[in-house]
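Sample pair:
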Amino acid sequence: MTSRKHDDISSQSNVWEIAAWAAAMGIFAPICISFAYYCSSFAQLSEAFLTFAFSAAAVAIGYGLKPSGKPYFSGVSFVTLATAYALFFAAAALRNTYFGAPLLLGGVAAALMSVGYAFFRGKRGARFVGAVGAGLYAYALLALLMPVFDMPLRFLSGISSVEILNLFGADAKLAFFKDADKFILLFGGKTFEVAQQCNGFGLMVSCAILSILLSVPDLGRTALSKAAHVILCILLAYAANIFRILCIVLTSPHIADKNYHIMHESYGYLFFMLALIATWKICMPRKNPSSGR
């Protein structure tokens, strides 16, 4: 195979390559804007995306990665860009099926990965871009499924909290009001709504994405081990959400009603940070990343 001079950005081939990227960005930009608007309507998804962005930056800094000033169309960036176009046309053909949206979002992730491969070079750069692409696609799919998971997660969070309280001799109950689509936790003569922000979805998505960003580039773990770490961190996030609910329920009788919101939000941020720190500790590469360069 003949080598290519990637640094000569004025060559005709590189002009067409950049045009191919620009066309892909133009095709997928409206999709990204529409999806960003959808995610911004849910506080949990907005928080999860901010966690994703900061985590990606932290991982890049931890691996000592810096983007190249001159992008080039490497073999892997060509394959991912071609995949993005293929997924776009497949999504168009299947737009009236359940496969349309996942294929379209896969095209967006592939297009962004193609640009990433063009800027981040070497083995470490490729592993980082692959992890970011996998995390981005996982975030997109989970965001689409949030309305599906919302009520089941509310029920699981509420019933788990009730069972733990009753395990220690309390008299707690979980009631469901079908007309209002609400789960109400009854404890100590007070009522607590298990609202959408109490389902733990955003925390689980955040921990899942952070674990993907940390695990995928790690050469010191097998694929099975990486998958196990991701699942472990999701379960850890679920447990953190249950402890958050328990702390709110148990603390509420001891504070004034005017301070309830502050207490509620404080426990939310506390357990969010604790879960992310635990995920970082669990999935942090055990091997010096420079050894895999």
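The helical segments are 12-40, 43-62, 75-93, 100-119, 122-167, 201-215, 223-251, 260-283.
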